Amino acid sequence: MRGFATGVTVAAADSGDGPAGTTMNSFTSVSLEPPLVLFCIGSGSRTWPVVRRAGCFAVSFLCAGQETLARRFAARGVDRFAGQEVATAVTGAPVLADAAGFVDCTLVDALELGDHRVVVGLVVAAGRLRDARPLVFAAGGYGSV
Length: 145
What we know:
This protein has 145 residues and is mainly beta. The protein is 11% helix and 50% strand. It has helices at 47-54, 67-74, and strands spanning 6-7, 9-14, 19-24, 27-31, 36-42, 56-61, 86-88, 94-96, 101-113, 116-128, 135-138, 141-144.
């Protein structure tokens, strides 16, 4: 799977105890009617329980040049939101203010498969925050198209 290029996103939620978020590249559109998206998250992730409790999440689309941000949200033991400007989506989920765009979702379902959960959300809001080339991940490294 290393050779398959994907966009890089940050999925985040806030269940009232502060935001949690994680970098991921397993994000995709599922349906246009109704508007559904999904992402896959490790079953042991610290972000997943926050998404579950909140019942909603936002996915921020990272831009070329935001590799440092992607690595921060993938790291363990750091305050991932430190120094980050964050906007609040319609659901209350955090959106990274300097991202290219976002989708804001209510949690529809989560299916445990192997060592991950497939999380499905209903899009309740979406926006483009700025024109920028996307950050992509392939073959163990970051780049852009």
